[in-house]
Specification:
With 488 residues, this protein is an alpha/beta fold. It folds into two domains: 223 residues, P-loop containing nucleotide triphosphate hydrolases (Rossmann fold), CATH 3.40.50.300; 232 residues, 3-Layer(aba) Sandwich (Rossmann fold). The chain contains 20 helices and ten strands. The strands form two sheets. It has a five-stranded parallel β-sheet, with helices on both faces. Strands 7-8-6-9-10 form a five-stranded parallel β-sheet, with helices on both faces. Helix 6 packs antiparallel against helix 16. It is elongated, with a radius of gyration of 26 Å.
């Protein structure tokens, strides 16, 4: 792709100046349309060292209100980022609706450099390519404009710029060992870059090769492409996105109505089992930490099904320094303004730690679907997106355990009434709980579809029969222990 790149001739100075003024004015005017249409714009600047990425970013942002953009230089990973999934540090930086984020370097640089320096083998490299393509497609499917620029300069030009910087003690620091290595191995790097660009060049997130020999010409190429991309994205904002077919292996699951809820446990047996299982889980937690294996436990279920008590019995076995419980409520405004998975990426555990979600990303295909908080296209698309998200987690090495806590309608009514009539429990019951109960049949239909379409072999659903809460607690502990032991 780089090698086949045909350079467009840089225009004469007077034409270049006129086109720059026009493009700058257009971008300045378009930022208000971006805000009005709530279009999030993610601009990725990649390319050779000393090709002028930072310089062009500095010029582009002069045409944007400072309140509407953020710039991130994606340097070496922090210790925290090293203990998170590969895409974590990029996903958490995506812009809010109506704003820009510009990245100086990003996932392309990380993937190609790790490959060039032998930090990833061919299998891991291909996994990362798939992750990147899914990431970019998910963003564009959810209304993001993703613009990717690769700044190209010749080997000779790069060497000239590096030497110029090295000659001045005030600019010498700008030349890294990586830049010098890249210039020394220019052909090898070009081959790696070319392969990556071809693999990740898609119709929804294409690559734009920037001829970077002339700095003003490089700026113009970026500005004109950005203007064109924004105008097209605004025009196409109402077009529905195709629903992708699931490609992940699924595990056959029963309908909720087929789940028998008559299972019980004797009081003495419960306490004996609880002590034994909690002790074993505590031992496994130490091993998970030592082996740096992350665990994500996702809880969904009917209101009053006993999720809280279930979670409490699991956390009672764990070292409090090694886990966190995330109660998920309605999204805050800054969360609602981003991709719906953003707030869950932000809450992922470090390696060796456990994250427990009380309500999850599956709200997209339940409450958001039934209450009209997202479009039909959004929730139908979400099944595949959530399978992809969980695949990203398991590829990272995480154990993903998903519980649906099941009760019948009569038991729910009994527990609702008990909560309403007991002063110290009244905080647990709300008008919304009663309203949701009236939609039981609609919710059951949505839940059945959710379980059917997202119970993958790598992250299956486990249905906990919770008419007897104590039985459900023991089952949850047994399943969790079994999944951890299987991984270890």
């Amino acid at each position: 792709m780089i090698r086949d790149f045909v350079k467009t001739e840089c225009p004469e100075d007077d034409v270049l100046k006129e086109r720059l003024e026009t493009a700058r004015a257009k971008l300045f005017a378009l930022q208000m349309e971006i805000k009005e249409h709530r279009l999030p714009v993610l601009v990725l600047m990649e390319g050779y060292g000393s090709a002028g990425k930072g310089s062009v970013i500095g010029k582009v942002i002069k045409n944007i209100d400072p309140r509407f953009f953020k710039v991130f230089t994606m340097d070496k990973k922090t210790e925290e980022e090293k203990r998170k999934p590969f895409l974590y540090r990029y996903f958490v930086k995506i812009p809010e609706a109506g704003k820009f984020v510009l990245l100086d370097g990003g996932w392309m640089g990380e993937v190609t450099k790790d490959k060039l320096h032998g930090k990833t083998d061919e299998e891991e490299y291909n996994k990362r390519i798939h992750s990147v393509k899914r990431f970019e497609r998910q963003l564009t499917d959810n209304g993001y404009l993703v613009m990717k620029f690769f700044f190209r300069i010749s080997e000779k030009e790069q060497k000239k710029r590096l030497n110029h910087l090295l000659e001045d003690k005030n600019t010498k620091w700008r030349v890294s060992d990586a830049d010098l290595w890249e210039n020394k191995h220019y052909d090898k790097c070009e081959e790696a870059f070319d392969h990556y660009l071809e693999e990740t060049n898609t119709s929804t997130a294409p690559w734009y090769i920037v001829d970077s020999k002339n700095k003003k010409w490089a700026e113009l190429q970026v500005l004109e492409r950005m203007v064109e991309g924004i105008e097209t994205a605004i025009q196409n904002s109402s077009i529905a996105v195709p629903i992708l077919q699931n490609v992940f292996p699924l595990k056959k699951m029963p309908k909720l109505s087929e789940v028998k809820l008559d299972k019980q446990i004797e009081e003495d047996t419960y306490h004996t089992e609880l002590d034994k299982l909690q002790k074993r889980l505590g031992e496994l937690h130490n091993e998970l930490y030592r082996k740096k294996i992350p665990v994500i436990i996702a809880y969904e279920g009917w209101d009053a099904a006993g999720k809280g008590g279930n979670i409490k019995r699991i956390t009672g076995a764990l070292d409090p320094r090694g886990f966190e419980v995330h109660p998920i409520a309605s999204p805050e405004p800054h969360e609602k303004a981003r991709h719906y998975l953003w707030r869950f990426w932000n809450r992922l555990p470090k390696t060796g730690h456990i994250a427990i979600f009380d309500r999850t990303w599956y709200g997209r295909v339940m409450v958001e679907r039934l209450e009209g908080f997202c479009s039909e296209n959004d929730w139908k698309r979400a099944y595949n997106e959530m399978n992809e998200f969980e695949r990203e987690l398991t590829d990272w090495g995480a154990i993903v355990v998903k519980f649906w806590v099941q009760i019948d309608k009569d038991v729910q009514l009994q527990r609702f009434t008990d909560r309403q009539n007991t002063p110290e429990k009244q905080w647990k019951i709300t008008d919304e709980d009663w309203r949701n109960r009236e939609k039981w049949d609609l919710y059951e239909e949505a839940i059945n579809e959710m379980i059917e379409k997202t119970s993958t072999e790598y992250a299956p659903w486990h249905i906990l029969e919770s008419n007897d809460k104590k039985y459900a607690r023991i089952q949850a502990l047994k399943i969790l222990i079994e999944e951890i032991e299987k991984k270890l």
